[in-house]
Amino acid sequence: MRDEAETLFQKLQRTVGHEETFTDDKPIGRAAFRMYADAVGDPNPLYTNLDAARKAGLPDVMAPPTLLTDTFRIYPDGLNESGLPSALEQQSVGTPIRAGNSYRFFRRIHPSDVIAATRKVTRVWQKQGRSGSLAFQEIELSYRNQHSVLVAVNTEVVCYRESAEGGDAS
Fold first, then answer.
1. Domains plus CATH for the chain?
2. Residue 16 CB: number of other CB atoms within 10 A?
């Protein structure tokens, strides 16, 4: 098991510094705002009602803040059978377990915005858990609009563990 954990950690170490930018091929659109707000159960009229948004001083409805960070719409080729972005399969070292997120929001997103996300692996580390070795990967996703203005940053930590059978937990 020790060799397996070390191999997994070495794979993760090779990802540090890897950076890719993905750009959506169309504006984000009102429908995405409504569907996301419905999915997360947030009835805020600023996400769906133009009159309410204008009364609040906005030029248009705005996106629920975590819409950008919780959807995979910017990745080409959609998702694979595991539910992960197909565009990231070459970098895969196993199935990630979400271990935390830290969000910073700088600008509101409106329906006409076209979003680009830059994904960069910033660091990795190991810890010993009750069930074996755990490897962590920190990924920073920076989101910019069509004017190259930074609108949000999501710092995500994912965890990988060695499997009980001897092979990564993918």
1. 2-28+74-161 (3.10.129.10)
2. 13
61: region left, alpha or beta (phi > 0 left; psi from -120 to 50 alpha): beta
**φ/ψ (deg, to 5) at 165:** -85, -10
pLDDT tens for 135-154 read 899 999 999 999 999 999 99
Q: Residue 170: its pLDDT value, please?
A: 46
DSSP states along the chain: -HHHHHHHHHHHHTTTT-EEEEE-SS---HHHHHHHHHHHT---GGGT-HHHHHHTT-SS----TTHHHH--TTSTT-B-TTSSBGGGGGG--S--EEEEEEEEE-S---TT---EEEEEEEEEEEEEETTEEEEEEEEEEEEE-TT--EEEEEEEEEEEEB-TTSSB--
Please name which of 133, 152, 132 lies closest in space to residue 142, comparing C-alpha atoms: 152
